Amino acid sequence: MEKQQAVDQALTLANAAQIAMLGTNGDDGYPNIKAMIKMENEGLKTIWFSTNTSSRRVGQLERDPKASVYFVDFEQWMGLMLVGEVEILQDAASRERLWREGYERYYPLGVTDPDYTVLRFTSHWGNYYHALSNVTFEI
User: Fold this and answer.
1) Reported pTM
2) Nearest to 3, CA basis, from 139, 138, 135
């Protein structure tokens, strides 16, 4: 598979995905994986998530921002791993950007709830897998 074809297919996969696996480094040095709702993506470079400030994931990212994001399409046997870093954001613009109706159920104080946090993942490189081909590329 050609590199550009892999990047194009990887972008299609990321755009269509509703769930992504976020990998962080645990306190004991072992990888931790969590399924997260992908809120938005800007191509393959930036993936946006929201979560609880009090979550284990935020604590891990405060100590070590290195992370990976994995998207999968089981029906077509496609996978995309992105490797990069996560920023923990609490600014008003980021919070409002990802706020959705119904979030009050989880964040009763609304968009300014101190337990509401935005995560911005920025990827450095990716690896796309499909049809027994692996293609690694910089982003």
Assistant:
1) 0.95
2) 135
